[in-house]
Write a structure and sequence with these properties.
GO terms for molecular function: endonuclease activity. Pfam families: DUF559. Keywords: Endonuclease, Hydrolase, Nuclease. This is Endonuclease domain-containing protein. It contains five helices and four strands. The protein has a four-stranded mixed β-sheet, with helices on both faces. It has about 120 residues and is of the alpha+beta class. The longest helix has 16 residues. It has a single domain, classed as Endonuclease, Chain A, CATH 3.40.960.10. Strand 2 and strand 3 form a beta hairpin.
Length: about 120
Amino acid sequence: MSERVFNLKNYQYLRVKLRSNMPEPERRLWRHIRGRQLGVKFRRQHGIGIFIVDFYCSEKHLFIELDGASHFTEEAQLYDRDRSEYLQDVGLEVVRFTNAQIMNELDSVLQVLLHKVQ
């Protein structure tokens, strides 16, 4: 890939702002995936093209998205679909969870992630 797509400078301020204002489901998941707890390194609020993904693992070309209530409108679902297609087109795999899954089924979520990164 000749053109730079990761962590574009013009989105740096937004990435930093998102990291400092993580919703509770993102904080909860981060506590369990940071520091190579699953055997691979994840980055939070990582820029890929014009998008910022919740969590990204460069070793496995995998990104994790957490979907809160705002993701369930028709407009948001179309945006998420287009965004996922772009990210898949650059060779990345997406794993999506709802905030409710993180808050209520964290062990199951971690098992899915562990399977994905092994």
